[in-house]
Amino acid sequence: MVGVFLVILCDIGNSTFNFFDTKKRRSKKIFLDQKLLKKYKDETIYFISVNKSATKKLKKYYNNCIDINSMFEFNTKYKGMGIDRQVACVLYDHSIIIDCGSAITVDVMKNGKHKGGYIMPGLKAYEDSFKAISPKLDYGFNKDVDISILPQNTQDAISYSIKQNIVLSIKDIRKKYKDLNCIITGGDGETVQKYIKNSVYKKHLLFDSMKEIIDAYNSTAKG
Predict the structure, then answer these.
(1) Tell me, what's the pLDDT at 96?
(2) Is 59 exposed, middle or buried (CB count within 10 Å of its CB: 0-12, 13-18, 19+)?
(3) Residues with active-site annotation
(4) Domain map of the chain by residue range?
């Protein structure tokens, strides 16, 4: 379980630093070109990263940064799997883990082993792809569109196709692995989770997993 003492975590992605205060259970996203948070200057920052240049920025600004990559092992044959996906999956032995961020990742964990996974565009990426086709398709995504009925306007038609692509893909993988739990996380996770029966939404799944990895590593080191 996540402890009550202060630990600052950071998930470094392709476009943002995402900080998380484990005591207050609050996160703060900062774009890569923005200034980092002064209030963390004296804290130890535990981090994961898929961005080398952003990692250098973090280490330059904060005096004490620890990469948790070496604190755990992940059993997979998947080549090039991002550290964020590994951390999200490592504590789940029997689940489908779906992270709905700028990209949507779907990973299958069965009997403690990673069976594989796939990636598709996130909601915003899908939306931008229509905009690139034609300015006439430049509509904001309607999260409330009803995918049980056919749309009657262009905005809903775009939103309908986006949701259908994502939801049907997830439903298909669930049919193949009927005995697995379905856990959904990420910024758009709540939107997606509404359409996936018997699934669970965990807002802070990645950070909670990071904290458990750190706690287990420190406990072993002390022992």
Answers:
(1) 98
(2) middle
(3) 84
(4) 8-70, 94-204
Interval 126-137: pLDDT, tens: 999 999 999 999
State yes or no: pLDDT of 5 exceeds 70: no
Q: Domain spanning 8-70 has what CATH number?
A: 3.30.420.40
| Dihedral, CA of residue 194, residue 199, residue 201 and residue 202, to nearest 10 | -170
- Encoded tokens for 211: 């904290």
Q: What's this model's pTM, rounded to 2 decimal places?
A: 0.89
Radius of gyration of the chain (CA): 19
The partner residues of 8 in beta bridges, in order of sequence, read 21, 45
Give the closest residue to 100 by CA, choosing from 118, 82, 123: 123
Question: With 80 as the cut, is the pLDDT of residue 192 above it?
Answer: yes
Span 207-213, average pLDDT = 96
Q: Of 27, 25, 19, which is closest to residue 1 (Cα–Cα)?
A: 25
Domain 94-204, CATH 1.10.760.10 — does that match?
no
Q: In this predicted structure, what is the pLDDT of residue 143?
A: 86
Tell me if 123 sits within 8 A of 188, measured CB to CB. Answer: yes
The CA distance from 208 to 126, in Å, is: 29
